[in-house]
Each structure stands twice: as structure tokens, then as C-alpha cells.
Amino acid sequence: MNRQTMTISLDVNGQRHVLDTAAHHSLLDVLRNDLDLIGTKECCAEGECGACTVWMDGKAVNSCLVLAVEADGGEITTIEGLAGEGELSPLQSAFIEEGAVQCGFCIPGMVMAAAYLLEHNERPTEAEIREALSGNLCRCAGYKRIVRAVQRAAGSGP
Amino acid sequence: MSIPNVGPPAGRVGGFDRVTGRQRYIADLRLEDALHVKLVTLPCARARIVGIDTSEAARVPGVRAVFTAADLPDPMPRYGVHYDDRPVLAVGETKFHGEPVAAVAADTLDAAREAAGLVTVDYEELPPVLDVRGALDPAAPLVVDPDLRPGDPLADTNIRREFRYAWGDVDAATADLVIENTYTFPMVTHFAIEPHGFAVSSDESGVIVWSSIQHPYILQRVMARVLGLPWSKVRVIAPDPGGAFGGKGYPKFEPLLAFMSMASGRPCRLVLTLEETFQAVRRNSAEVRIRTGFDSDGRLRFQDIGADFLMGAYVDISERVISKSSHLAAGPYRVPNARILARALHSHTPPSTAMRGFGTPQFTWALEQQMDEAARRLGLDRLEIRLRNLARKGEEIVPNDTPADGDWFESVQKAVDAIGWSGPLPEGRARGLAVGIKSSATAGAAYSIVRFLYDGSVLVLVGTSDMGQGARTILTQIVSDELGVPPDAVTIVMGDTAAAPFDYSTSASRSTVFMGSSVMRGCADLKDQVRSIAARLRGLPPDDIGVDRGMVTFPDGEEKGIVEVVQEGLGPVGGELIAVASMRGEADPSHPIGGRPWFYEFNCTAVELEVDRLTGEVLIHKHVTVGDVGKAINPLQVESQDEGAAIMGLGHTLMEHLVLDEHGRIANLGALDYRIPTTKDLPLDLESVIVENEDGPGPYGAKGVGEGGLLCVAAAVASAVSEATGVVIRDLPLTPERIWRAMSRAGVTPSGASRR
After folding, report:
1. Is-cis flag, bond preceding B733, omega within 30?
2. I need a surface site. Which of B58, B445, B629, B754 has the fewest CB within 10 A?
């Protein structure tokens, strides 16, 4: 096995980190294991479930598919950085108010994907919301409530 | 009855932590000094293990232990819920693809993975048993060594158990129409988004087991047994599971980690990959042969049902899945004559376990399609034939068992209204409707400790798990309402056998009924204690004092808050009021399934859909799910659970199916190739309707919910697909390919354009 390590620099939620990482470690590995940002979840580890969604340089990515070394110099936002400590963004509040949260394991990734959508489309249609979240699996299948939460946060609710 | 705090939406307890990423699931726990474990498996289901060379693996820096069967006690310790049948590591022969033959523990996960890849196993692949026919072939290899089944008359077969139920006389029954068909229900997997995780630490004082388990007390019992420890020396800490659906009910790799921890002197942790989780749990696949007799009016004369369930290599809880679901195989109908034979079969496939619906969806799939076929052959409306047979409230459906406990006609009517059953259909659309019923828990015990603290806040200790169904929220609502305490001042402590008292399990949609009742009783006890204190302080008989919703009322009309009275009564040294309560459902050994169900989950599902004649793809325009819940203590949670169950049902209806290759490996192993519903598979309109008649055994007349919405989805969709295309499909899932092939065979021509 390649045990080569590299030094990378990441800006995570506005804080700069310089750390050594194994060449094969993913951004998800670094966030969870090196930076202890456990809000980002791991499920399929192959880019299908969306549980590990974070923003990198302003784009929503599956952090399991990004090598940590690829993220070098990048600006990362995780679920922990979406709102101030002890605060909720309007989108997070909407998730609670609409009953979109069940077991909650998919929710950090779901919120990050939905927040990304709202960054780029302030008033998405229901079809656009379904499209934007189709890469985020929820087995409790709170999809209907999740879509409503995004609509509520966007002020475009039913 | 006025129930101020019960009914309107209450904020989900734990919601804040879940939307901010603060919720700690099993994989988020950090254990000082823990070793990371990686399993070693073979690329086939069944193989004779000739030899295992661990020397190269052991040389990887950071590796602390490489375990094989030789490192475990001889004979190999075995464990399970029904039987001690599952070895801690494979010994002699592997029984399914994914069964570990060795395990590595290392300082880092990287080292463990590298070393696991360096364990060399010399093995000889053997022909596996992979399906019902293979299991029943007289020449089939025996999955379970007969020596492990002493005194079992079926030990020289792959049949573990046969369950027979009968009433009336099927052979003597006459019928105007007899329909006989075979239906199949595929292997599907739970696919909780949180993969399973486990950790164990051990020392001379006992073991601590961390697990994403639904039933911490069952894990405690099994661990104590396999390790030879008193229960008090096994502490189970169970963080809220990130979805479970039955799949996280029973022990998996906790015993292995315990032996590795005892040997290494370090805590050991193992978080499965999603692929390993697929290999660890699945739903029982089933083949249901059913012969149904009707009179010319469409009234049921008999049901003759034979079902083969493919359990897999080890029994887990599947024997109960099969015995319990088959007892109710004739469904929610009046059936004068019935004969049911259900067989639990072993195979070289991953062990199956409980999964939402607990065997019932397999039967419902067959039963409801029979009703449709009878309706077509007798020229009856598909709704009408169901109404003619559905049991009325109070009528027996299985002799000497719990009678129909709800107004099921009301549920059906609500579905009919919501889907517009008789209304005009847009071009190319069709509707389908089906009903389903599942037995709830038959026995169990739920203990709770309710502590009224000096400042008026309340601590509730329960062994129930909150796995997404919202048990914390329901219990908080109940306490808040009963004691007049704001919800924010109630804390529910769960998931630690050293803190919370015994709860039988978090299964069978029981928690609101069982634990909810237990906590209600605890609150009633506390109110009695307050009454006694108030009586003592005033020198009055307790009966003269009222305690309700946080207020103490004296005969002279004076009112005081409970807290004031408690503080006055306890005096300056302080203290607290403690109530220990329980809700027990005793087992009845004379009952065929060990006791009468406490309630039924009844559901009626109706859909309106279209089938793309060119591709066979199904587009669901509207999906209505109606559940008879007795009382919705939290309507939002009831609806969310029913909607979730409905969508999970659409999974096995339209797309989900574990495919095995000839080596017994899951060919579609992982999220890339095993599809579950996404936002884009959501019906265009999904409506959940609640029937509330306060006729359940739980608090405020509640029944359990959460499984009903899944039971009859496949039959309702298939009913509409048949209506739309004229073809009948008796195997799930109804993939576009399967529908297209059926249409092609039947000569159904593409008429009209494809959708969109």
C-alpha cells in the first residue's frame, strides 16, 4: 500500500488548517477523522448517496469522491459552517418545522445540497428541487417533507 | 377527551442536533485507544476452508491481532436469537458470501484494510444453495450441519421449521371459482443510510458494547450468553440508529469484537461499509403458492396457502418473521376455511432478519392479487370484492385471535375518496387499490423510570430506541401533557442498559403503545405521590385533592403548581419523586404465536398511474395511504412514517431486488447497482390519511404505526398496472423490463406516445 503522505492546506468553515494526509484519503476522511467534523456522514463511499455532501470552492460535492490532496488550497463549507454556533439557517429551521427530519443521518448532506440549490436558484420549482436533491438518498423517505422544507425556506411553499 | 399537548404538531426532539450535524451516531463515537477491525471474506458463498495464512498480514505495521477460528474457543462459540447457530467466525466452511473467515485489528483503519487484503485463504469453493428450489432438492447440500440440530426431525433437510395453521375444512369447502397461482417476493435489503457499526471494550469488570442496535436488551442477553457473563457485566450503549427498519434488531459482529477486545486488551471498533451491510441483513424472499375459492358473489370460501421463505444461512429472527406473518396470511378478510403451511428454509445466502412489515408484505402481495383476479373473472369491481369480504370491527379474522380492532371500512372509504375511485380517468391512466394488515406485538415488557426533579423538570429513562420514528418526541409529549411540564423541561434518556430499565424491543410498531403506556403509568404514579404530599401538608385525605396538568387543587378551591407542593413536601434537604412503571403483555403459550396481537396495523393504499407502453416504465400520479392509527399523538410524525413506508414499499414494488450470481455473491452490491427510491421516484402526489377512532390499546387510544404504509403497496400498484396493460405479473419488482416483456408476450401494442 502506498503510505505516501502530503501536506495540504484547507479553509474549512472559515478556519485554515494545514495538515498531512495520506495520498489515498478522501476529503471526507480528512473532515471526519483529522478535523473531527463528524457532521458530514459516510454511507456508500462511492458518490451515490449524497450523505457526505459539502461545498468545495462554492460547489456542492460528494466529499467521498474528492481526494484530500485534490482539495488542497480549497475552501470547504460543511454542515457545521452553515450557520453560527447554536443557530439555525432558515433552511435548517424549515427542515425541522416541516417534519423533514426522521433518523437524520442523511440530513446534513441533504441540507448542504438544498442550500447549494438555493444559493443558485432562489425560487426553485418543485421539479427543480426534486432534481437537485435526487443524488441524496433518504431511506426514511421523508422526501415529500424535505421538498416542502426547501420550498418554505425559499418562500415558495405550497 | 381534551388532550391539550397531544395532537398538534410538536417539534421533533433531537431535530436541532440532526440538522446541524451535532447528532452522534455510532460511527461518530471516539474511543480512546481503539483498534480498527476489518473483516476478511471469500469471493463466494460456500467454501471449505483449507488453511489460512496470516503471517504477512501480521507484519503490517500497526496490526495488533489477526483472528481466525483458531484464535477462538473450541468448540466455536455460536450465538443467535432463536438458536445459538451463528459462529463468531466461519469454522470449516463458509455459509454465505460476506461471512468472515478472519478479522484484523490494527491501530489505524488503513493498516487493518491493508492487512485484511494480505490474509491468504486456501479454500475450495463448493456448490451453494441459492433459492427455494435448490434448498428443497433432495440432493441439495445441507446448509446447517445436522450435528448442530440434535433431536430436530428436520435436521437432514434445509427446512428449519414448518408452521401449520388451519380452521374450517378446506378439503370439504365448495367454491364456484377457484384460483391458483404462485407469487414471488424478492430479496431486498434495508439500506439504512447509516451502515451498521459496533465497538466493544473489555476489562475484568465486564464488557461495554456500543452498537447501532434497535434492541439493546436483546444484545445484552446474547452477549452475556456467548461470553459467559452475568447480564450486569454487559453494558450496552446504543446511540440513536441512523435508520434501522428492522435490520438493526439483532446481534451481528458484537461477539467477534468482544473476543478481539479481550485478546488485545484494547477497545475494538468496526463500522461496516454499505456493501458489508448489504451482506449482513436483508428481507426474507418468499414464494407463495395460493389456491383461493370464491362463491359466485365473490365471497371467500377458502384460502389454501403454502409459502416458502428463504431465510439464509442463519436463523436470526426469521423464524418469528415467518411464524407470525403466516398466522395472519389470510389477511383482513372473513375466511371460513383456511389452511396455511409456511416453511423456513436455509440457504447459502446472507441471513435475513426483521424488516418493516415482518413477513406480511410477502403474503399481501399474493393475497391481494388473488382478489383482483377473482374480481376480473367474476365481473366485480376490485373495490367491491374487497368490501364483500372485509371483516367488520369486532369480527374474528383468525379464530380465537384478536378480532378486527378498527373500522377498516372507514379506511377503505377514505382511500376511495382521496383517489376518486369511480371518477373519470385521464387518458392512459389506471387505478389500483389494495388492503393490508399486520399483527402488532403479541407480548413484551416495557419498563420506565420517571423522575420528577426538585426544580420541576422531568427525566425519563427508557430502553426504547429512537431510530427515526420519533419515540423521544412522543414520550416527551405524553410526559408534558400528563405532568403539565413544558416539553423543553423533559429529557428522555435512552440507549444505555446501565441507565435505562428493560425494554423488550423497539419493534413491531410497539413503542407508543407499550412504552407510551408505561410512561403514562409512571406519570400517574407521580401524580399520586404529589397528592399524598399535598394531603400530608394540609392534613387532608388524599382523595380530596386534585392533581391535573401540573396543578394541585385543594378542596377550598386553592390551586398550586406541582413544583411548589413537591418542594414544600421535600423540604430544604431536597430530593425527587421517582416512579417505576411497566407495561407488560404476558406470553400465552397456548396461543399459536405466543399471544394475541395487541392491535393490528391496517392500511388501505390506492394509486393512480400510467405505464409507458414503449418502455414499461410506471409513473405514479397519485398515491394515497390510509392508516387506522387509533389516535395520532403526533400527526406530523404519523404522516411522515406512513409516507416513508409507502415510498419504501415502492422500492420493492418497482426497483429493488438483490441479484445473486452463480457463486452466491450479490451482483448488485452497493448503492451504484442497487437502486432505492429517490426524490425523482416520489409519486407526483403522495397523500397520507389518518383514521382516528381512539380505539387502540395505547395512550389516548393510540395504535402503533410505521409499517402499515408498506404492506400493500406492491399489490395496489400491480392492480393498476394490470388495469392499464391487461397483463398480470406475479413476480416483484415490477421493473420496466419485466413489464415490457409481459406486455410484449401478451401482444400489448404501444398505443399513444411515450410519456413526457
Report:
1. yes
2. B754
How sure is the predictor about B750, in pLDDT bands with cuts at 50, 70 and 90? Answer: low
Nearest-angstrom CA–CA distance, A48 and B278: 15
Q: Are residues B475 and B521 in contact, defined by beta-carbon separation less than 8 angstroms? A: no
Taking contacts as CB-CB distances below 8 angstroms, the residues of chain B near A96 are 11-12, 15-16, 19
Confidence bin at B1 (pLDDT 50/70/90):
very low
Cα→Cα distances A63→A60, A89, A105, A115, B264, Å: 9, 22, 16, 16, 34
3-state secondary structure of B242: coil
**Chain B residues within 8 A of A104 when measuring between CB atoms:** 14-15, 17-19, 23, 240, 242, 468
> pLDDT tens across B83-96, in order?
999 999 999 999 99
Question: What is the least distance, in Å, from the CA of A73 to any CA of chain B?
Answer: 24
- Which three three-digit cell numbers place residue B582? 411497566
Tell me if chain B has a CB within 8 Å of the CB of A112: no
φ and ψ at residue A47, rounded to 5 degrees: 80, 20
B679, B681, B685, B710, best to mutate vs chain A, most A CBs in 10 Å: B679
Mean pLDDT of chain B: 96
CB contact under 8 A, B680 and A79: no
**What number is the average pLDDT over the span B334-348?**
98
Pairing of strands B35-40, B102-106: antiparallel
Alpha helices in B627-669 (DSSP H): 635-654
Distance of alpha carbon B148 from its chain centroid, rounded? 28
Q: Which three cell numbers stand for residue B319?
A: 423464524
- Structure ipTM: 0.97
Record: contact A131-B680, CB cut-off 8 A:
yes
What confidence tier does B10 reach under pLDDT thresholds 50, 70, 90? low
Q: What pLDDT score was predicted for residue B11?
A: 82
Does this model's pTM top 0.95? yes
Report which residue type is found at A90. Answer: P
Domains of chain A: 5-79 (3.10.20.30), 90-154 (1.10.150.120)
What average pLDDT does this structure show over B550-571?
A: 96
Q: Taking residues A92-103, what's their average pLDDT?
A: 95
Contact yes or no for A22/A30 (Cβ under 8 A): no
Q: Which stretches of B473-617 are assigned E, i.e. beta strand?
A: 490-493, 546-548, 551-553, 559-561, 577-585, 600-611
Q: How many CB atoms lie within 10 A of CB A3?
A: 11
User: 10 Å Cβ neighbour count for B749?
Assistant: 8
